[in-house]
Design a protein that fits this description.
- By secondary structure, the chain is an all-beta fold.
- Strands 2, 4, 5, 6, 9, 10 and 11 form a seven-stranded mixed β-sheet that branches. The chain has a four-stranded antiparallel β-sheet with strand order 1-3-8-7, with no helix packed on it.
- Strand 4 and strand 5 form a beta hairpin.
- The N and C termini lie far apart (40 Å).
- The model has no long low-confidence stretch (mean pLDDT 95).
Length: 126
């Protein structure tokens, strides 16, 4: 059974930073592209970033470009999302998900990802 577990969320002031982790168990992460999504209260789930299985290719939503960085350590079976210059509008539950392909599509779509974590809350507020 594929399991993903997110961690690293919390409360941070505007302009602050957080690093989210997505740890996999039950499967080898390096066979999958991994995406990060987020869902704010009352809104749909939106794609934030994706990284290919090798880590050689990444993409980002326009809203986070230049502020967020996705990376992976396949030896640790973990994907990270470094979030800098956080804004109140970044407040959401953040999810990681595995795509049963080695590459990321140009756009992140929820149906393209089959295994999901339980999410971690990120709150940006003063």
């Amino acid at each position: 059974q594929l399991q993903l577990v997110e961690s690293g969320g919390g409360l941070v002031q505007p302009g602050g930073s957080l690093r989210l982790s997505c740890a996999a168990s039950g499967f080898t992460l390096n066979h999958y592209a991994i995406g990060w999504f987020r869902q704010a209260p009352g809104k749909g789930r939106e794609g934030v970033s994706c990284i290919s299985s090798s880590g050689g290719s990444t993409n980002y939503a326009d809203s986070v470009k230049g502020r967020f960085t996705i990376s992976r350590d396949n030896a640790k079976n973990t994907v990270y999302l470094q979030m800098n210059s956080l804004k109140p509008e970044d407040t959401a539950v953040y999810y990681c998900a595995a795509r049963d392909l080695y590459y990321c599509a140009a756009a992140l779509h929820v149906p393209d990802f089959g295994s999901w974590g339980q999410g971690t809350q990120v709150t940006v507020s003063s």
